[in-house]
Design brief:
CATH architecture of the largest domain: Sandwich
Helix content: 40-55%
CATH class of the largest domain: Mainly Beta
Radius of gyration: 34 Å
CATH superfamily of the largest domain: Jelly Rolls
Distance between the termini: 97 Å
Shape: elongated
Order of helices and strands: HHEEEEEHEHHHHH
Oligomer: single chain
Strand content: 15-25%
Largest sheet: 6 strands, antiparallel
Number of strands: 6
Length: 213
């Protein structure tokens, strides 16, 4: 990676020429085809990656086996730094989504460079905080969807029918249909009264009401 390319990475754009040159000497280049797994959850964290071009997808496997994409990274983005900071294993999978060229910084070089470049370390912490906020929001939405799906799966046929009827009965479609039916009934009986006499069924109903009152 050249200094010009390195400066296109927001994390390293504030580096002076000497620091940028030093970092370029520490980086190794790796070309990857689409579908290549760079690491999987549980692997040892031995390097940080910077994307020169292409795309990388960060994803996790849910308890039901479903794959959840946390984010898709492109040119200028970096990833893999979390395991280097806390010394723990990888917490997610990283797979190449579109043929990519990556710059790799080993854990040893990463730690020494962070100690000598506090500004870069601060920028990295800011980026980590933003990613955690994004992940929290993604998990919140996913949890809400899962609750709704589980609730819907427990509904019986009678429950579903009742929901459909209640939804239609309280809708504007039902109100318009009822008004249209009532007006049509009035117009038809008005026409029958003018041409053939009053509807006998209506007359019988009126007589019954009069008797009751």
């Amino acid at each position: 990676m050249t200094i010009e390319t390195l400066r296109q990475v927001p994390l390293f754009e504030s580096l002076d020429d000497a620091a940028a040159k030093k970092l370029c000497e520490l980086l190794e280049t790796l070309d990857c085809k689409t579908g290549t797994f760079l690491f999987r959850a549980g692997d040892a964290g031995d390097a940080m990656y910077v994307i020169e071009h292409g795309k990388v997808r960060i994803c996790v496997r849910a308890t039901d086996g479903h794959e959840v994409t946390l984010t898709e990274l492109g040119r200028g983005d970096f990833f893999g730094e979390m395991a280097l900071l806390n010394g723990q294993r990888r917490s997610a999978d990283a797979v190449v989504a579109d043929g990519a060229r990556l710059a790799i910084l080993s854990r040893e070089h990463f730690l020494s460079f962070m100690r000598s470049s506090p500004d870069v370390a601060l920028e990295m912490l800011t980026a980590l905080a933003n990613r955690l906020r994004h992940t929290d929001e993604l998990l919140r939405r996913s949890a809400t969807r899962n609750v709704n799906v589980e609730e819907a799966a427990q509904l019986t046929l009678a429950d579903r029918a009742a929901d459909i009827i209640a939804e239609f009965g309280g809708s504007w479609k039902f109100i318009f249909a009822a008004v249209l039916f009532f007006n049509s009934w009035v117009l038809i009986n008005t026409w029958l009264l003018a041409n053939r006499g009053f509807d006998t069924r209506t007359g019988f109903a009126l007589k019954s009401i009069i008797k009751l009152t």
